[in-house]
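thought: fold this chain, then report.
action: predict
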Amino acid sequence: MKTARILLAAFFFFEFAPAGAQLPPSNLQFLQAALRACAAEPVATLAAVPDSLIVIARVPAGAESPGRLLQNALTEIIRAQNRQGVFDRETVSRKGIAVNYAVVQAQLTYSRLPGGWLGWLRTARAQRSAQVAVDFDVHHESTGEIYFQGLVQIVHRDTVQAGQIAGLENTAVPMTVGRWVERERTHRWLEPAVLVAATGAIVYAFYSLRSQ
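observation:
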């Protein structure tokens, strides 16, 4: 049967076609993008404020941390607005807009996705999530006026091949190492059912071809 041959050929093409060699953004870049999105909201409230001096809370020197990534993101965004961004330890008498923050959450997680058509034949896929929450306090040090105060939460998600995850992490930087979480219970019975149906379709196509 000509139709069966076409379906069988298409199936094996999509199941066994090699995945692209290009890696997605590393976990460090992925987390950095989430923190940058988190920093954009409070800084955006300063668009109409004429003061050009913005005093950014400094993160203690040391290893890479979510706080340091956030500090870098704030600095880039502020300087992109043609403002002068300085750190609180670099100035004592100079007054301006203070940007204080505390990273409440910054974590990476993976959850296994359904393999689709015969997922055991394909490279397993996973959903990668970066959950970030930062408490901001943006105010004027001279007048005490508050421009922004509160918690900003961001969740970034994408899909990666499970076999790529080791290459996306950097064990020397703990914040880039994600943890696996269980996917929804409904998928536990759904994927085996799809697997059985797909297997049946292949067996049917195989014997149909033999009968020709």
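thought: worth noting. DSSP finds five helices and six strands in the chain.
final: tokens above.
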